[in-house]
Specification:
Oligomer: single chain
Subcellular location: Cell membrane; Membrane
Number of strands: 0
Largest sheet: none
Protein name: Transport permease protein
Membrane topology: Multi-pass membrane protein
Number of domains: 1
Keywords: Antibiotic resistance, Cell membrane, Membrane, Transmembrane, Transmembrane helix, Transport
GO molecular function: ABC-type transporter activity
Radius of gyration: 19 Å
Distance between the termini: 29 Å
Structural class: mainly alpha
Number of helices: 13
Strand content: under 5%
């Protein structure tokens, strides 16, 4: 068996083990589905009336999708930190298995959770008035971009989980950086209304551009009121969103693997 085939086999076993752990910790799955539903209902019905009504709901869903899969990276952080704290990683290291299997298995299992979350979010969006108005190919491309971004964010979470000294630190570190990155974006409100420094950051923020790419492909409004955004990232949202996800992977996959080797060699 080739090294690549062995890595895929070992990673799939670790991924299955992680998914089976949900049976013993169902609250993990509950939080990954209940939180986005709460955000949809809160923004669609509590804030939506003053932000654009029905048009805002269609604008909102693309941002909620991206925010949700970004926040799912916190499960990667906590899962890896928990395995390190309990000595599970040491047990894996003693087995004749691929060194990357632990990380790839964790990020793959969390990708499966993101798929389930997106399905639930899509159903919730349809209930509040969201519709896919683009072609089937564009819709499939949008979901591919969303899951690619989710996979990239999981590797960010893997690196954070490996550098966290305890599960408690991981719980804070896994979410602390996500709040400013998510909310200083056009996930919920247009970036054009922000002060100049925040607007510049928001326009180039991968969360903003990925949300705009989804809106464009779904045929949803890029902005509730006013003209469409004219920044370079917004004009090339699909290309930039794919490129930014690949750049994140290119940076954090090697960092996570290098950190895992250091941790496993102790």
């Amino acid at each position: 068996m080739s090294a690549l085939a062995a890595s895929i086999r070992d990673s799939s076993v670790v991924a299955w083990r992680n998914l089976m752990n949900i049976k013993r910790n169902p609250d993990w799955l509950l939080s990954s589905t209940a939180q986005p539903i709460m955000f949809v209902l809160l923004f669609a019905y509590v804030f939506g009336g003053s932000l654009g009504g029905e048009a805002y709901r269609e604008f909102l869903i693309g941002g909620i999708f991206v925010q949700t899969v970004a926040f799912n990276s916190a499960f990667t952080v906590i899962g890896l930190a928990n395995d390190l704290n309990k000595g599970i990683v040491d047990r894996f290291r003693s087995l004749p298995m691929s060194r990357i299997a632990v990380l790839l298995g964790r990020t793959s299992s969390d990708l499966v959770i993101s798929v389930l979350t997106v399905v639930i979010m899509s159903a919730c969006g349809l209930l509040v008035g969201w519709r896919i108005r683009g072609s089937l190919f564009e819709a499939l491309l949008a979901f591919f971009i969303l899951l690619l971004f989710s996979f990239a964010m999981s590797w960010v979470g893997a690196f954070i989980g490996l550098i966290s000294r305890s599960v408690e630190v991981a719980q804070s570190a896994g979410l602390l950086w996500l709040f400013p990155v998510t909310f200083v974006s056009s996930a919920f409100v247009p970036a054009e209304a922000m002060p100049a420094p925040l607007r510049a950051f928001a326009e180039w923020n991968p969360i903003t551009v990925t949300a705009d790419a989804l809106r464009q492909l779904y045929g949803n409004p890029l902005r509730v009121t006013g003209p469409p955004p004219d920044s370079w990232p917004a004009q090339h949202a699909v290309l930039y969103s794919i490129g930014s996800a690949l750049v994140i992977l290119a940076i954090f996959m090697p960092l996570a693997v290098a950190r895992y080797r250091r941790v496993a060699s102790r």
